Amino acid sequence: MSQEAAQGLWRRFRGHPRRLGRKSTTREPIIQESETYEPGGPEDLDAEATRRDAGIAESSRANRGWWDRNADEYQIDHGTFLGDDRFVWGPEGLDEVEAELLGPPEELKGKDVLEIGAGAAQCSRWLAGQGARPVALDLSHRQLQHSLRIGGSFPLVCADAGALPFADGSFDLACSAYGALPFVADPRLVLREVRRVLRPGGRFVFSVTHPIRWAFPDEPGPEGLSVSSSYFDRTPYVEQDAEGRAVYVEHHRTLGDRVRDVVASDFRLVDLVEPEWPSWNSSEWGGWSPLRGNLIPGTAIFVCERD
Known about the structure:
The chain contains nine helices and ten strands. The chain is of the alpha/beta class. The strands form two sheets. It has a seven-stranded mixed beta sheet, with helices on both faces. Strands 1-7-8 form a three-stranded antiparallel beta sheet.
């Protein structure tokens, strides 16, 4: 199997890596289908994995469609691990309860918080439980339908992270656990939008696949421990249909790129967290596993503040 094909395989089942965990024993839809909805459609089954350029509009269009088509399977596969109200930063299992990257839980009460790439809004639900006032935003309407299924009293917004529909200075905090940033062609557009809607002194914390992972095959076993491509190759990963139209896009940035993106967007980088694989986590999911996790990082978490 080529590296491109392997990447396509794990990305198709990966989504946001915080969705790690046990699978449901049922394959039945968990929310009502419309007559025109086709989960896991032919666009995904027949997609060709490649590396090529993909711009802002193409990336957004492809990923909105992919998440709408695959939201049900995603929630079936990973909803048990997520529960209804956990806040997990990545497949290592680092929980915000312990990490306190947004601040001590007792200080979240009354804070306005924007979650970007919320999926079914499990993180927002946890924030609401701490007394915060979250707003859950996602590109995918279907993912947000799952948030409605679970329930919650906070707002849900279907919008692109590169064009946030909020006034300047609307939030005290913003967070994104593997949401938006890996999938956009211009991460600075998102970062600047987040800075705009944050109040002075506001904090933005986001997690992404650790950039070093792009140099390795996405395999959980020993075959995933040998470098197979250039870490410096920033060509996007694209799955495309028979007509060459992108149906899924993911973008690579080096660690230095991520730091420069943060600084160029007028944020101050407060911390860069690379979670170690804990001994209690025996899960193997996609390219993440105890074997790899004990040797190379899988997640990078950027803690940023607006002055």
